[in-house]
Design a protein that fits this description.
By secondary structure, this protein is of the alpha/beta class. It has helices at about 45-50, 55-85, 105-110, 115-120, 120-125, 160-175, 195-210, 225, 230-240, 260-270, 285-300, 315-320, 325-335, 355-360, 370-395, 395-400, and strands spanning about 1-5, 25-30, 100-105, 130-135, 140, 145-155, 175-180, 215-220, 250-255, 275, 305, 340, 405-410, 415-420, 425-430, 435-440, 450-455, 465-470, 470-475, 480-485. The strands form 5 sheets. An 8-stranded parallel beta barrel has the order 3-4-7-8-9-10-11-12, surrounded by 4 helices. A 6-stranded antiparallel sheet has the order 13-14-15-20-17-18. Helix 10 packs parallel to helix 11 and helix 13 packs parallel to helix 15. This is 4F2 cell-surface antigen heavy chain-like protein. One of its GO terms (biological process) is L-alanine import across plasma membrane.
């Protein structure tokens, strides 16, 4: 037995007597532990036991098991690596394949400040994920007068040389390449002044001049004429130089031509990117499907560009009143190739409307002006739709450089898939007719359902909802972008 002082007991419960009181402490007697205390093996005893034959065998057995397990895991990892599906190599892409091209044909109409006004909107273009700005024409010329053509002089009412240099520097900092439109006779009449041979020589000199200034490329219209001249090989040679840190682009266009002729021009011209207005939802879906398939099967999609607006075509919203602008947007962004839009197409501006409307969308309209408020809300919705498509195309590999597979087409509808390796698959379906269409998209390599990623018909096809592919219904003037996962 031993005495223990309880100094922390509740003072009120302690019995305070003359014999036991000691500075507020109470002594109590507790029994001592009479059992043997375990101290374990000593160091010498452990060393003696560890050297016995039994423990040596156990240690060797554990060591062998450890190494066998390690070798087994290594072998399993090798087997998994060998039998795992190989990732498909990413195709070689240049800046004009990575996002949309944005055309500003009339700089003064875009902004009264000329190129300074264009520079002020570079942040806006970055938000829209613009990769290339097709600018101009900005050179001096009088309509139909070849002798006044000066392809290396900027119109004074548009900008100064300093304004141009500043625009190029700021655009490059934001990752936007600037392409100069060198359409010779852009005021009126034949773009080549009915003398393409003489103009081609001026084009060659102008390309050398402007590329040295820092432009990311040159745009030329109606290539079917200039590629027949003797100057064309020397023009091509300017763009084939390999000493540049960033490749410059030779971009051309053709309009209102058959798919066969577009393919011929692309083969003979050797341009980096050829824009065509072939895919037009106002035409038959079967015709579109044939034309797209023709170009896609014959050429790399990195050389294909799709444009449905411009100086000669007008804006997207003015192409056909029967086709909502968002259907055009979805078609261009999901086709295999580079989408090209004119300034204002992202909000549905019509030909003749001033781009200033785009910058006023954030300003509230008068509360009692219901029509203006409704129009503003619609344009904001169209712009958000455009931006979502642009984001998806830049982020999703299937949309960026995936394979194109035609699924369904009729006189007023079109459906196709975009596939890339082990990435999510995307399916575009659109109906520009006046009646509801039902598409049977079921096949052995398609799931029963797909997820809605973007739609013009939020009432019947809500975003993120699952829809059946066996009988996909699309209402009049509606389009939907679906996705489903890769399953091996």
């Amino acid at each position: 037995m031993k005495d223990v002082e309880l100094k922390e007991m509740d003072q009120e419960k302690q019995l305070m007597t003359r014999e036991t009181q000691k500075n507020g402490c109470v002594k109590v007697t507790v029994p001592e532990n009479s059992g043997a205390k375990y101290t374990g093996l000593s160091k010498d005893e452990l060393i003696k036991v560890a050297g016995t034959a039994g423990w040596v065998r156990i240690r060797w057995a554990l060591l062998v098991l450890f190494f066998l397990g390690w070798v087994g895991m290594l072998a399993g990892a090798v087997v998994l690596i060998v039998h795992a599906p190989r990732c498909k190599p990413i195709p070689e892409m240049n800046w004009w394949n990575e996002g949309l091209l944005y055309q500003i044909s009339d700089v003064k109409a875009f902004s009264e400040k000329g190129l300074k006004g264009v520079e002020e909107q570079l942040d806006y273009m970055s938000q829209m994920k613009v990769k290339g700005l097709v600018l101009g024409p900005i050179h001096t010329v009088q309509a139909n007068q070849l002798d006044t053509l000066n392809l290396v002089r900027v119109k004074s009412e548009v900008a100064t040389e300093n304004d141009l240099e500043s625009l190029l520097n700021q655009a490059n900092k934001k990752g936007i390449s600037v392409v100069l439109n060198l359409t010779p006779n852009y005021e009126n009449g034949s773009v080549w002044f009915d003398n393409v041979t003489a103009v081609a020589e001026k084009i060659r000199d102008a390309c050398t001049h402007w590329l040295k200034k820092g432009f990311g490329g040159i745009f030329l219209p109606e290539l079917g004429d200039i590629i027949e001249t003797d100057s064309w090989p020397s023009i091509q040679a300017i763009f084939n130089q390999t000493d540049e840190t960033k490749k410059v682009a030779l971009i051309g266009s053709v309009t209102r031509l058959s798919a066969d002729y577009v393919s011929l021009v692309l083969n003979r011209s050797g341009v980096d990117l050829l824009l065509t207005g072939l895919a037009d939802p106002a035409e038959s879906g079967q015709k579109q499907a044939r034309g797209i398939k023709k170009l896609y099967s014959s050429h790399q999609q990195t050389n294909l560009g799709w444009s449905l607006s411009g100086p000669s075509l007008g804006s997207l919203a003015s192409r056909s009143k029967a086709v909502p602008v968002r259907l055009y947007q979805m078609l261009l962004f999901t086709l295999p190739g580079t989408p090209v839009f004119s300034a204002g197409d992202e909000v549905g501006l019509k030909t003749g409307e001033k781009p200033q409307i785009m910058w006023d969308l954030e300003n509230p309209v008068e509360e009692n002006n219901a029509a203006a408020k409704t129009l503003q809300e619609e344009r904001i919705a169209v712009r958000n739709f455009f931006k979502t498509l642009s984001d998806l195309r830049g982020r999703e590999r299937s949309l960026l450089h995936g394979e194109y597979v035609s699924l369904n087409s009729s006189s007023t509808s079109l459906a196709f898939r975009r596939l890339w390796d082990q990435s999510d698959r995307f399916l575009t379906a659109m109906n520009w007719g006046n009646d509801t269409v039902t598409m049977n998209l079921a096949s052995s390599d398609l799931p029963d359902q797909a997820r809605v990623r973007l739609t013009t018909d939020t009432k019947n096809l809500a975003v993120d909802s699952m829809v059946s592919l066996e009988k996909l219904q699309l209402g009049p003037k509606q389009a939907v972008l679906l996705s489903y996962p890769y399953v091996g």
